[in-house]
Sequence to fold (142 residues):
Amino acid sequence: MNALPEWFSPPEDIVNKSVIHREYPFIVAYDSGKAVGFAALKIHNRYTADVYNFGVLREYHRTGIGHQLMDACVQYCKEKHYQFLTVKTLDESAVYEPYNGTRAFYKKEGFYPLEVFTTFWDEENPCLFMVKVISEVKENDY
Fold:
């Protein structure tokens, strides 16, 4: 996260998240032994996991690493029988160029925008809540 300051800040938030990640399923992508991307999944309930944090080094953007990481997240969810994978990201109403690509990535990966929460983080950082269906919910599942 320290290598991705456009997406992760301030430093004390990075430290806090690095401690929280220890309790979550954590997936890492490597290139010749070098960590180049990661995903941390927060489990909300027996139906839903959340992409709590996700990052790929800028020089590895558009190389397929992000897609491979997301595939690993989806596979994990399938193995654990979660039906939904959610993610929270910065909404487009907060004009900040680095997140244009982030939203496009999630949309390409099959996430749908559900709602914008204007005060989830703070008023300057509206939260776009998105979901990807992992498996169909059956009547007996709920």
The mean pLDDT is 93.
